[in-house]
Automatic annotation (TrEMBL):
<keyword id="KW-0479">Metal-binding</keyword>
<protein>
    <recommendedName>
        <fullName>Enoyl reductase (ER) domain-containing protein</fullName>
    </recommendedName>
</protein>
<dbReference type="InterPro" id="IPR002328">
    <property type="entry name" value="ADH_Zn_CS"/>
</dbReference>
<dbReference type="GO" id="GO:0016616">
    <property type="term" value="F:oxidoreductase activity, acting on the CH-OH group of donors, NAD or NADP as acceptor"/>
</dbReference>
<dbReference type="InterPro" id="IPR020843">
    <property type="entry name" value="ER"/>
</dbReference>
<dbReference type="InterPro" id="IPR036291">
    <property type="entry name" value="NAD(P)-bd_dom_sf"/>
</dbReference>
<dbReference type="GO" id="GO:0008270">
    <property type="term" value="F:zinc ion binding"/>
</dbReference>
<dbReference type="Pfam" id="PF08240">
    <property type="entry name" value="ADH_N"/>
</dbReference>
<dbReference type="InterPro" id="IPR013154">
    <property type="entry name" value="ADH-like_N"/>
</dbReference>
<keyword id="KW-0560">Oxidoreductase</keyword>
<dbReference type="Pfam" id="PF00107">
    <property type="entry name" value="ADH_zinc_N"/>
</dbReference>
<dbReference type="InterPro" id="IPR011032">
    <property type="entry name" value="GroES-like_sf"/>
</dbReference>
<dbReference type="InterPro" id="IPR013149">
    <property type="entry name" value="ADH-like_C"/>
</dbReference>
<dbReference type="InterPro" id="IPR047109">
    <property type="entry name" value="CAD-like"/>
</dbReference>
<comment type="similarity">
    <text>Belongs to the zinc-containing alcohol dehydrogenase family.</text>
</comment>
<keyword id="KW-0862">Zinc</keyword>
<feature type="domain" description="Enoyl reductase (ER)">
    <location>
        <begin position="20"/>
        <end position="348"/>
    </location>
</feature>
Length: 355
């Protein structure tokens, strides 16, 4: 739906076509409804979804497309029914902004699994038929239910990556009880998601082994993130030495991996949780059956768990490693993300750069 020209109330950066190139774009946000919150965006994390969608990798991107679903800021105004927030509060919005609110998943606080499909924060179709636009923008209007309290003592810039990268690894870790001290976890891939998995796991008291194709990550894995073990996944001897040693593996990589080999590293009853998107998942049935093993998948998380994770990070002083950049650097940031040239998450400083 196009707005009256000259009457646009929001400034963002949008991709106009599958080149994915972002540039300034004015558009209209809806008026604040009785259950809505208008949020002045201060920061937005840069997620690989921003690359995929701006470049139409899924084939359904609707242009102009304003990416960004790791959104934090300040409450600017609230609708008359809003209970949990007041003007000036620190607030966050993650990967979805609406859902049916009546299905079993919504009723359980697992709105991301809404049976009618959660409305994505950008490039989704909202209930009024408009296309949603994300956090590379000056403000956003969201129903209270899909907003999160950012604890006052937690830096806003650091909170942004928790809303996708953080919750994406937290959800399967909680779901499979990967928070039991003394258990062992393998983390495949050491990017935005992987580094958060290591931080959570160490906080829970787990023994953590990082698997990477890149020997250059060894020092940061062991010394910066305090992993217990670093394995070059192409080194067959190192891999063989890990057989039947892990309770859990979380795969954050989207490159293809040898699933049979990784399943052999799990103890009996072990779980391989998949949060990345390899081109295929291929394994021999015996790799599962003989050791009662499981492969499971997951994406972000519900509103209940997201708020629990934010509170946990604040009380345990867990912070993502971030590089703060201005909005004018967004195109370079996406290019560097494609090259994996970031430790470990870009965060756009919207407040000080979007003019």
């Amino acid at each position: 739906m196009t707005s009256d020209v000259g009457n646009e109330n929001c400034l963002g950066w949008a991709a106009r076509d599958p080149s994915g190139f972002l540039s300034p774009y004015k558009f209209n946000r809806r008026d604040v409804g009785v259950d809505d919150i208008s949020i002045t965006i201060t920061h937005c994390g840069v997620c690989y979804a921003d690359v995929s969608w701006t470049r139409n990798k899924q084939g359904h991107s609707k242009y102009p497309l304003v990416p960004g679903h790791e959104i934090v800021g300040l409450v600017k105004s609230v609708g008359s029914n809003v209970q949990r927030f007041k003007i000036g509060d620190h607030i966050g919005v993650g990967t979805y902004v609406n859902s049916c609110r009546v299905c079993e998943y919504c009723n359980d606080g697992l709105e991301v699994q809404c049976s009618k499909g959660a409305v994505l924060t950008f490039d989704g179709i909202d209930t009024d038929g408009t296309v949603t636009k994300g956090g590379y923008s000056s403000h956003i209007v969201v129903h209270e239910r899909y907003c999160f309290k950012i604890p006052q003592n937690y830096p806003l810039a650091s909170a942004a990556p928790l809303l996708c990268a953080g919750i994406t690894v937290w959800t399967p870790m909680m779901g499979h009880k990967m928070n039991q001290p003394g258990k062992s976890l393998g983390v495949i891939g050491l990017g935005g998601l992987g580094h958060m998995a290591v931080k959570f796991a160490k906080s829970f008291g787990l023994k953590v082994s990082v698997f990477s194709t890149s020997v250059s990550k060894k020092d940061e894995a062991l010394n910066l993130l305090k992993a217990d073990n670093f394995i070059i996944s192409s080194n067959q001897e190192e891999m063989k030495a890990m057989e039947k040693s892990l309770d859990f593996i979380i795969n954050t990589a989207s490159g293809d991996i040898p699933f049979d080999q990784y399943l052999s590293l799990l103890k009996s009853g072990g779980v391989l949780a998949l949060v990345g998107f390899p081109s295929e998942v291929k394994f021999h049935p015996a790799s599962l059956n003989l050791g009662m093993k499981s492969i499971s998948g997951s994406i972000t998380g519900g509103t209940k768990q997201t708020q629990e994770m934010l509170n946990y990070c604040a009380s345990h002083e867990i912070y993502p490693n971030i590089e703060i950049v201005p909005i004018q650097y967004a195109n370079e940031a996406l290019e560097r993300l494609i090259k994996k040239d970031i430790k470990y998450r870009f965060v756009i400083d919207i407040a000080n750069s979007l003019k």
